[in-house]
């Protein structure tokens, strides 16, 4: 039988029937091992450190999840820190206005970034506005990272210019309210793919269309609807607007082919837009909401030919040829009536601000 090994120098001797302590609770004074010692942290210290670790983990996860797209969104990624930004620069754009404006800004960013050979990132606010409705794919730039980047603001007019093909700067933020087809029509198929409706949005709209038909606006609208009635057999017009009371008062629905479908809620436009975009043809009044619905729907499209009053300052920043495609047909409205009687009269004598967008669908 082998005898137990001798104790480590400096440890108290053990009796033959005892097992040596491998980790004594207390080292003999004056005999440290290699100059080190052991201490036992108090419960309060361990608890304090535990709270710090938990709080740090929760904060970090919350920060990262802030840029994760919702379950409806197309796969995307968020940029969190400046060190993870792409080398060679990047493009982003301001997120301003409502749905139609932000669709125009997204499409312009997509097209100009591709044209200039730069990656494009959208603000988190734009992702929140568009991702619940469309299968957009551009990655998201978190506002924390965006605030640390030395951006060069680059203002855009609402029409394409040759100088936009070679935009200088490394980190460029496009500004303004661009929505013109002249920016992105050369990549129309890609833009239409970016603005593909999510299944649940499309199915809800299609369920309504199967029950009723589709959308609507007057004077100008009477001529526009008459044009479709003369060329299409048994069309149905569906009206969506942020001024539904005005629409019901001014649109003649006595023929039974007009359906007032819009709920007029500007803060939740997905249902109205889905209805409009899935129609066969469009009659629009004013605003980017109707322009985008018509652009995605295709077919025959009628717009206001005289978009502004003759002396409106808006004429300086708005070019009809940049807003409306050449194949779209314009019908003039009567601008001679009292502007106070018509909502949104500075831009159109016949419609509310976002516009009553009547569209037709064949049964």
UniProtKB/TrEMBL annotation:
InterPro entries: Glyco_trans_11
Regions that span the bilayer: 36-59
Signal sequence interval, chain numbering: none
Principal EC category: transferase
Domain of life, source organism: Eukaryota
Pfam families in alphabetical order: Glyco_transf_11
UniProt keyword list: Glycoprotein, Glycosyltransferase, Golgi apparatus, Lipid metabolism, Membrane, Signal-anchor, Transferase, Transmembrane, Transmembrane helix
Role played: Catalyzes the transfer of L-fucose, from a guanosine diphosphate-beta-L-fucose, to the terminal galactose on both O- and N-linked glycans chains of cell surface glycoproteins and glycolipids and the resulting epitope regulates several processes such as cell-cell interaction including host-microbe interaction, cell surface expression and cell proliferation. Preferentially fucosylates gangliosides GA1 and GM1 in the antrum, cecum and colon and in the female reproductive organs.
Native source species: Lynx canadensis (Canada lynx)
GO cellular component: Golgi cisterna membrane
Stretch list, region Disordered: 337-363
Entry EC number(s): 2.4.1.-
Keyword Thylakoid: no
Recorded catalytic activity of this chain's protein: a neolactoside nLc4Cer + GDP-beta-L-fucose = a neolactoside IV(2)-alpha-Fuc-nLc4Cer + GDP + H(+); a ganglioside GM1 + GDP-beta-L-fucose = a ganglioside Fuc-GM1 + GDP + H(+); a neolactoside nLc4Cer(d18:1(4E)) + GDP-beta-L-fucose = a neolactoside IV(2)-alpha-Fuc-nLc4Cer(d18:1(4E)) + GDP + H(+); a beta-D-Gal-(1->3)-beta-D-GlcNAc-(1->3)-beta-D-Gal-(1->4)-beta-D-Glc-(1<->1')-Cer(d18:1(4E)) + GDP-beta-L-fucose = alpha-L-fucosyl-(1->2)- beta-D-galactosyl-(1->3)-N-acetyl-beta-D-glucosaminyl-(1->3)-beta-D-galactosyl-(1->4)-beta-D-glucosyl-(1<->1')-N-acylsphing-4-enine + GDP + H(+)
Recorded metabolic or biological pathway in which this protein acts: Protein modification; protein glycosylation
Membrane association type: Single-pass type II membrane protein
Protein name as annotated: L-Fucosyltransferase
Compositionally biased tracts (Polar residues): 347-363
Similarity field: Belongs to the glycosyltransferase 11 family.
GO molecular function: galactoside 2-alpha-L-fucosyltransferase activity
Location of the protein in the cell: Golgi apparatus, Golgi stack membrane
GO biological process, one term: carbohydrate metabolic process
């Amino acid at each position: 039988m082998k005898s137990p090994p001798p104790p480590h120098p400096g440890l108290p001797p053990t009796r033959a029937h005892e097992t040596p302590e491998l980790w004594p609770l207390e080292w003999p004074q004056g005999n440290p091992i290699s100059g080190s010692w052991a201490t036992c942290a108090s419960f309060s210290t361990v608890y304090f450190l535990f709270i710090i670790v938990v709080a740090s983990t929760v904060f970090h996860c919350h920060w990262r999840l802030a840029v994760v797209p919702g379950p409806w969104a197309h796969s995307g990624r968020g940029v969190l820190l400046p060190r993870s930004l792409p080398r060679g620069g990047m493009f982003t754009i301001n997120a301003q206005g409502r749905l139609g404006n932000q669709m125009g800004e997204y499409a312009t960013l997509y097209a100009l970034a591709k044209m200039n050979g730069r990656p494009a990132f959208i603000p988190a606010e734009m992702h929140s506005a568009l991702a619940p409705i469309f299968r957009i794919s551009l990655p998201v730039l978190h506002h924390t990272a965006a605030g640390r980047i030395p951006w060069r603001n680059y203002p855009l007019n609402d029409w394409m210019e040759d100088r936009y093909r070679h935009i200088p700067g490394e980190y460029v933020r496009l500004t303004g309210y661009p929505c013109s087809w002249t920016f992105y029509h050369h990549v129309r198929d890609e833009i239409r793919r970016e603005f593909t409706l999510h299944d649940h949005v499309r199915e809800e709209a299609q369920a309504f269309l199967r029950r009723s038909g589709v959308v609507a606006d007057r004077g100008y609208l009477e001529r526009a609807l008459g044009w479709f009635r003369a060329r299409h057999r048994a069309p149905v017009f569906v009206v969506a607007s942020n001024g539904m009371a005005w629409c019901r008062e001014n649109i003649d629905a006595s023929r039974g082919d007009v359906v007032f479908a819009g709920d007029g809620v500007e803060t939740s436009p997905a249902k109205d837009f889905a209805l409009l975009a899935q129609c066969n043809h469009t009659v629009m009044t004013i605003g980017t909401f109707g322009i985008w619905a018509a652009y995605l729907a295709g077919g025959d499209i009628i717009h206001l030919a005289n978009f502004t009053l003759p002396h409106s300052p808006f004429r300086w920043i708005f070019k009809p040829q940049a807003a409306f495609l050449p194949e779209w047909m314009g019908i003039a409205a009567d601008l001679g009536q009292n502007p106070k009687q018509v909502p949104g009269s500075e831009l159109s004598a016949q419609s509310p601000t976002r516009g009553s967008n009547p569209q037709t669908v064949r049964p």
